[in-house]
Amino acid sequence: MNSTLSAQPYDLAIAGGGLVGASLALALAPLGLRIALVEGVAPVAGSGEHPSFDERTTALANGTVRVFRSLDVWRHMEREAMPIRRIHVSEQGRFGTARIDAAEQGLEALGYVLPNRVIGAGLWEGLRACPGVELIAPARAVGSELAGDLRVLVVERDGAEQRIAARLVVAADGARSLVREQAGIESDHWAYGQTAIIATITTQRFHAHVAYERFTPEGPIAVLPLAEGRSGIVWTRRPEEAERLLALGDEEFLAEFQRTFGFRLGRILKVGARHSYELGLARTARHVAERLAVVGNAAQSMHPIAGQGFNLGLRDAASLAEVIADASAAGQRDPGARETLAAYAKWREEDQGRIVAFTDGLVRLFGSPLGLARGLRSAGLLAFDAFPPAKAAMARLSVGAAGRVPRLARGVPLVTGH
Length: 418
Ligand SMILES: Cc1cc2nc3c(=O)[nH]c(=O)nc-3n(C[C@H](O)[C@H](O)[C@H](O)COP(=O)(O)OP(=O)(O)OC[C@H]3O[C@@H](n4cnc5c(N)ncnc54)[C@H](O)[C@@H]3O)c2cc1C
Known about the structure:
globular; FAD/NAD(P)-binding domain; binds flavin-adenine dinucleotide; alpha+beta; eight-stranded mixed beta sheet
């Protein structure tokens, strides 16, 4: 990885070097392409201040872990990864819980939990070994324009404008993607009127590799197992309630959390720094334009209730890398060729549609105070627990194995010899 700009056009210019953009650069590196990776905030080792590699913890599907193994970066992350052996789903004040057990599904784990800063550090460590990837950071992509058979990414860096010509520009600049928007690709946005508070807690009892999902009338709670016996929480509330909770002292905050979550992990002893995120659903109408592809949160962002956002975004990256690799193997050396982008768009629309419908359906089913939804929920949890095929389907989704699965997510390299 080096940091000089080149007058020669790049094969690809990726705007955004967050979780998905950095993964895409890594996935493409073995193809021998010249790639510019433009990132707004240069990550600092060990810091949780980066907008993508921050203090959140992410539940990684098994498919995602296979991608990281294929990209040879899992070894940088593995030590801190906590396997999820069981998911426990419950609803406050209602009878009925559901459990999905890894062993019952014939799996070692239903997924793995990692702090985002560990994932980010691992990805950037991997990029250091990729001579074809030029890192341009800190630099802000503000848009792009077509120029013959190239697209020029316009970048602000050190107060000056730079223009980076490439055969394909990729918008990986997150939910508020400037590059997507400026290219005229619209995105629907729906605000849920919910805020997620995230923090790390220390509990009296060991989590025993169980991830908890608890639905309450005020919003869902997820408690994810972490290394050293700690757990990561995602506590969803209405924005004004979240503001109140964020302003509380640690002890009062923990007392309220304990009341809502209960004593499954014994007493909650400590809480770390708290951060908050406004939750919404956004999805693009299109994944591509001429010589432009959209990946990750720039293409869709969703409620964290089902832990699908990054897993889906990484499949965007793995699918784009795969269609480019296959086109190249068939003699098409231009990664921005129309047919290649059309193949990418077709693949992603199906996957996006399924995951967005599943996640949004869960938010609405468990977010509704109406009697019918409540009845369905309770019956649903009980039936779900007693109905193995439903559990198997859910487990498949949680391991990221529904629909057409990218080769990297099956552990198959994109090009032989890697
Ligand atoms: C509370 C919470 C919990 C979550 N938990 C899970 C989970 O358990 N499992 C899961 O799969 N997903 C989870 N997600 C979703 C997941 O975090 C996102 O899907 C993921 O971060 C998307 O990665 P990305 O790289 O596409 O976008 P981002 O993480 O937003 O990264 C975008 C990158 O682009 C850079 N950038 C932005 N604008 C520009 C610009 N103009 N020029 C250059 N660079 C730019 C930013 O600095 C950043 O590095 C969760 C989300 C939240 C809010």
